[in-house]
Design goal:
The protein has about 475 residues and is of the alpha+beta class. The protein folds into 3 domains: about 240 residues, no CATH class; about 90 residues, no CATH class; about 100 residues. Helix content is about 65%, strand content about 10%. Strands 1, 2, 3, 4, 5 and 6 form a 6-stranded antiparallel beta sheet that branches. Helix 11 packs antiparallel against helix 12. The chain starts with a helix and ends with a helix.
Amino acid sequence: MMKSFAGPFVATFFISMFVLIMQFLWLHIDDLVGKGLDWTIIAQLLFYASMTLVPLGIPLAVLLASIMTFGNLGENYELTALKSAGISLYRIMKPLIFFIVTLTVLAFYFSNNVLPYANLKTGTLFHDIRQHKPEVSLKPGIFINDIDNYSILIHHKNNETGMMYGLQIYAHADVQDNNYEVTVADSGVMEIGPGGEYMKVELFNGYTYTDEGLKNTRSRSFPFRTVQFEKQHIIIPMQGNEFQRSDEGLYRNSHKMLSIGQLTRRSDSIKTLLHAEKEAHVNSLLSYNYFKGGPRGRLQDSTLIAESRGLALSIDSLYAALDVDEQKTVAGNAARLAREVQQSRKSGTISVRYREEIVRYYDIEWHRKFSLSFACFIFFFIGAPLGGIIRKGGLGMPVVVSVLLFIIYHVISMMGERSAREVIDPALGMWISSLILLPLGAILTYMSMTDSAVLSAESYMNFIKRLLTLLKRKK
């Protein structure tokens, strides 16, 4: 059984990883094309990105391999022969169960130790690629402003020889928002230097116009210089166009870059700060907003004493004892204080919600490491009985069924994660897909062990044939 399972598992794992990597490239192709990146940068990105996709590829490979293995046994009637010899399905699956349990533990170890490092490398590298300036691409009839302090326009380009015609180069390096120097040439050739640090331009038959007055604004004279040339070389610096690596420490505290222990510690510390912040906010509202004190006059004191002699204190009587101007002042002050309370509540709520959102992200990532690993166990107990039902090996029907089940699992998981970010408890949101598919795996395994007719494809075919026969007789 181990030998029958190992081959399909390895093959389907690499197939699954290839499909997931192609999906990754399809989603981020716009960030990679036209940057002039070295192949080593692309290779590093694909390597680290493939490591981040391993927790998804392993459950899919387990599902595919289990369906293919037991489908081959059912197609060749080996499963029937084993059962007729008195060997139960549990004994057939027993070595694979031990293997899947071991694989689940290894998957959790990978998610807890290797995945944070891979996420850190992928996130940092992706940030650097997005910040990298695009490769200079000259298109006829369009101004190119990708190079700092220069604007370039060409009218025609020979793609075979690389010769460009009708060049116009506007330089505004020393004068902000002004083109102090313009070079016009009949033709020319441009070549990026090694490392992309500069661009060498060779121009033929043209003029260079320089407005010296724009450089020196204090001068009262406005000299203008014109230079005619038959051949001219220009070196344009490409500062900031080289690929630069960021400090990984800036992203090390993100929730995807942390292990189980780090997530627990950071979540507990934020919860402690959150509790203290809530108490401080409540005390602030009670001390400075809800109860206000101030100087009172004799009329207010006498009214207060009269109202408090064995009677219930009435705020309305205190307000009625004031004259019209004092009532307006009191009403205005009350409205102002109410607005202050409302503003204080809003600012406090924003801060509290921000910290609660961070805690939710930490909790989601904490449960993700367990739920993705446990998916291997669930998919095996779904795929093994389904393989016996389908009784088809190879990459035909098993692939279709596996992809449909994995899509259902992935969609439910994404919906649960999105709900966990805003509405439901993070634990429920991250485990809802497992809670839905686990009973399905248990039912399928039980019915397959008991040889239930519900899982027999032949019984359904015979029922359909009998139904068609009855319809023909009635006609």
